[in-house]
Every structure is written in structure tokens, then in C-alpha cells.
Amino acid sequence: MNASNSPPAPRRLNWVDLPPEERFALLRRTESDLSEYLAKAEQIIQAVREEGDSALVRFAQELDKADSFTRDSIRVSDEQITAAPDRLDEEVREAIAFASESIRRFHKDQLPESFWLHEIRQGAFAGERTSPLEQVACYVPRGKGAFPSVFLMTVIPALVAGVKRIVVLTPPGADGTCDTATLAAANAIAAFGTGAIEIYLVGGAQAVAAVAHGTETVPKCPRILGPGSPWVAAARRLLADKIDPGVPAGPSEAIVFADGSVGGELAAMDLLVEAEHGADSSAYLVTTDTAVANAAANALPKLWAEMDANRVAFSSAVLSGKQGGILLVPDAETAYQFINDYAPEHLEILSTDPFKHLDFIRNAGEILLGAHTPVPLGNFVLGANAILPTGAKAQYASPLSVFDYMKRTSVGFVTKQGYPALAKHAERLARYEGFSAHARAVSDARLPLLEGLDGVETPPPSRNEP
Q1: Which residue, among 305, 243, 136, has the nearest Cα to 235 in the 3D structure?
Q2: Given its phi and psi angles, is residue 343 left (phi above 0), alpha (psi -120 to 50 degrees) or beta?
Q3: Would you state the pLDDT for residue 249?
Q4: Which of 198, 315, 376, 458 is most buried, taking the most CB atoms under 10 A from its CB?
């Protein structure tokens, strides 16, 4: 790479030199302002609602540049899924199998008890029953590449949770077909559960609209999960009254925190990981060490020289723009505060003793500890889910999990012996709040109606069923 086309230098920031408004500006992400997408997304949604499959075909041709796309192209056939592994490099198949098993093990361990009751008061039991959703939509983006790893991260938890119908939405390629590795992934994990995996070649805002309203081919679903572009985020916002938008997963973002015990070149290498996703990503190196900051900045040109040109363009735009750079802070406490305010999707702690920092971090989608735990391991093969809350929503939201594919139902059971104590207090509260029917239902008027109804006195044990 010669000097004439070298990427711009990363933005260098010193916390102590920044006025309050500039410190606050560091927290902004591209997904924070969807105004330029909302109006167009609304038009796409209306078209899908009114025209169904015809709109999906038109948008595939116009937006995805799939000129040969037809109604028959929308759903991927089972034969295409079955044939895909033979068209894929053996090493990629092995990597998919390795990652799949890690993800399955993690989410299997995450499964809650399917039914539990605890004795809250003598003779009074309360608990929950957890059951899978009947069907769910999983979105797998494709605009800046093909992402079989996202397919695995969204579909495997659904299979482990017991979802019976899994509707996968992914944009078609320019040739009107699905990414081969994604199809091979579907084939590889089919035995992980009893649910049926259906793949539909629909992307962007039109994909969200399709599962929110349903079309002739694409089924309506109650929830959509998985990361997406600003178009997907805009459609989710507009259709939140029609479909649950799930984990708020937008453009990629990361903070690499280096405390000075690990070198700056390694920090620079890891800083580029999420930055290369796209120019709408966000990525900061936060360090207390000037030497680390300088070494990272000096290492970036060499690292860029070894990368694909498109990824160089994406990552350099992020690191030289308003959503990235190298931030020097005066002390670890300032770093913790910035990290918690930022609430990054990915946080990597580069330290020879990363656990000493862990208790000070409250807000992050995931925390990867130490130089041997870079983000790519979390993204692909570690097993913990890599679909994480973005846009500072890690302050209150959690990573994608089996719980996103399940629903909980409260369960209560009171014995004959336990009833009187609860009824007395329930009647008092009901009368205070003015609910006469509530009060009568637990008053002495109930007692004659309960005579002779001894029934069960011991509830069944808690259990966990796949």
C-alpha cells in the first residue's frame, strides 16, 4: 500500500483535553439516528403489507440486484440444503461443526427448569413453567459478506429451546441464491432439535415486514431475532406493535481496554476486528498507557497492508471517524466509567490480570478476558452467544439466549391448610383497593363451597425437560 492511497490515521483523543460535550459525543453510534431510514422503510413495509410476495421479488431485484429472482426463489428447498455440504471446502465444514457443538453445549447448559414450584408460605407454592415459542424468525445479514456464524448463533438456541418452526430470513446474493456455508450450517445442526428450519431469501426492511405481516410464502412470526443493518433496525422500530423485535442488535461495536500490561500492537490487531464489519461500526481502544496508544497507532498501517481493501476501507473509516479511535485516559477508574457509560457490544480486556478489572464493569454485552480471548473466538467458536445488545442497550439488555426463544408462565398452588392465612390478607388488600368481587372470592363466603374438596396436598417436583 503506497502513501498516496494509505488509509487516514486513527483519531487520537486524550480524555483530559476533551470538554464535556466532546466526551459525551464519544458515546454516539450510527444506529442512534435512524431518521434517514425510517421514511423509506415505511414505504417498503407498506408495499410488503399490500403486495406480499410480489413486493419481495421486486425488492430482491432492485435492492439486492438479484435480477433473476422470482417467487419460486423466495423459499430455499430442502434439496438445496442437503446438497450444500458437498459444495463447501472441507476445512470450512469442520469449522462449522466445531462451532456448532460449542454453541449447542453452551445453550444446553443455559436451559432453565421447565417447571418449578417453591413453598413461599406454608402450604402455598408459587413457581414457573417455561415452554418454547411455537415459531420464531431469525435474521441472518448478508450485505457486507456471508455470515454462517450468525445463522448458528440464532438457530441453535432455538433448536435447543425446542422451537418447532424456525423461519430464517437472509438476503439473496446477486445470483438469487443463498450462501452455501449458511445452507451447510443448516444441514449440520438439523439433529440438534426437533424443530423444522425454513430458509427464506428476504433481506432488509422487507424481511421484517414479511414476518410481521406474513405473505403468501413467508409465515407471520411473533418475534424476530438476529443482527441487522439500519434498514432492519428501522423496520423493527416501525413494526414493534406487530412483532417483538428481540435483542437490539445493530451495527458492530467494541471497546478494547488495555491497562499497559499487554503490548500496543496486539491491541491494534484486536481493535480492527469489529471495525472491519462496516463503516457504520464503532470501535475504541481505551488505554491508560501512552506507550500502548502510540504503539497501536504505529502498528495499524502495517496491519492494514495485510488486509482486504474493502475491510481496510471500513475499519479506517471507523477509526478515523466519529465512532472510533484511540482514547488515552488518566486512570483505570476513568476507563471503567467510560466503558460503563458506553455499554459496548463487545468489551475485550487486554491485561495479564484481567479479572482485577472485571468487578468494575457493569455494562457490556460480553466481556472477553485476557490476551488469549480475542473477539473472534467469541464471535465464532467459544459457544457463548455473539448476538449482543448494541447502541448502549447493554445497560439493560442481555445477549441472545435460549430465553429469547421461550416464554414463562407463572404457576401457583395453595393447599387446604395454606389457604386461610393467604385469604385473610388478600381480602384486606382487595377491600382497601375497592374490589368487592376480589374480596368476596377469598372471604368466609367461600368456605362452604370448599367443604369436601380436599384434593392434592403435595405438588409435583420441579423438572427440566428438553
Answers
A1: 243
A2: left
A3: 83
A4: 315
d(CA 435, CA 262): 65
CB-based contact 350:257 (threshold 8 Å): yes
Residue positions counted in the chain: 466
Contact present, 315 and 339 (Cβ < 8 Å): no
Q: What is d(CA 464, CA 466) in angstroms, rounded to the nearest whole number?
A: 7
The H or E element spanning position 255 is: strand 253-258
d(CA 309, CA 144): 13
- Residue 249 and residue 386: Cα distance in Å, rounded? 10
Q: How far apart are CA 148 and CA 346, in angstroms?
A: 19
Three cell numbers, residue 324: 472510533
Burial of 260 (0-12, 13-18, 19+ CB in 10 A): middle
Cα gap 97→271, rounded to integer Å = 28
What rounded mean pLDDT belongs to the chain? 94
Alpha helices in 195-308 (DSSP H): 204-213, 230-238, 264-275, 290-304
pTM metric for this prediction: 0.91
- Cell numbers at 260, concatenated: 499497559
> How far apart are alpha carbons 291 and 286 in whole angstroms?
12
Whether the CB-CB separation of 148 and 445 falls below 8 Å is answered with no
Q: Is the pLDDT of residue 466 over 60?
A: no
Specify the pLDDT at position 229. 86
Q: For residue 10, which phi and psi values (nearest 5 degrees)?
A: -65, 150
**What domains appear along the chain, each with residue ranges and CATH number?**
37-247 (3.40.50.1980), 250-395 (3.40.50.1980)
The set of catalytic residues is: 345-346
Give the number of other Cβ atoms within 10 Å of residue 64's Cβ. Answer: 21
